[in-house]
Design a protein that fits this description.
The protein is an alpha/beta fold. Helices cover 31% and strands 16% of the residues. The structure holds zinc ion (3 copies).
């Protein structure tokens, strides 16, 4: 039965192959880390910050419980449409951060869970970029126990040390 289903999805009526095909051409099955990071990359495409697109994914028991991408808060003009004066300015990357109104992806993944009343305690956070100091504090106090990041942009020694001291396990997943 499953094979017939796969065959139907794999070919158009005219015999042309489409999408994923089961059976002989079985696609390689990704491991959990790759699977979640691939999804995080898709989530990042929804980011509305003019500076960069970042995403975070909250996972518990190998299931996604929340997602977040970076951008201006709910109800506020999108950053890419000029919503954040700091992001629109010429301020070099990493400066004038106190004036930035964009929420970070990790922050949004945690607050989205809060919005729906979902506990994040004991969860793993997958992020396309290593967290900043402020997000690290939120990660610690929300009870997240593991951070898996792809790119280590400005992952300061202070942030790393803080997460380690608080018992949050951090590891980098390199792109394959
Ligand atoms: Zn922005
Ligand atoms: Zn901004
Ligand atoms: Zn942050």
């Amino acid at each position: 039965m499953a094979e017939r289903f796969g065959a139907r999805l794999g070919r158009r009526a005219n015999g042309q192959k489409v999408g994923w095909v089961m059976g002989k051409d079985k696609a390689e099955r990704p491991d959990w880390d790759t699977y979640f990071m691939n999804i995080a990359r898709v989530v990042a495409t929804r980011g509305n910050c003019a500076r960069r697109k970042v995403a975070a994914l909250l996972v518990k028991d190998q299931q996604i419980i929340s997602t977040g991408y970076n951008g201006t808060p709910r109800g506020v003009k999108n950053c890419c449409e000029g919503g954040c004066p700091r992001c629109r300015s010429e301020a070099p990357s990493g400066t004038d951060l106190q004036d930035c109104i964009c929420s970070h992806a990790e922050e949004n993944a945690i607050t989205q869970a809060a919005y729906h009343g979902i506990a994040v305690r004991g969860g793993t956070l997958y992020c396309t970029l290593s967290p900043c100091l402020i997000c690290a504090k939120m990660i610690i106090n929300s009870g997240i126990v593991e951070v898996v990041f792809e790119n280590a942009y400005e992952f300061s020694r202070q942030t790393k040390t803080l997460l380690m001291e608080a018992g949050v396990y951090c590891r980098q997943l390199r792109r394959r």
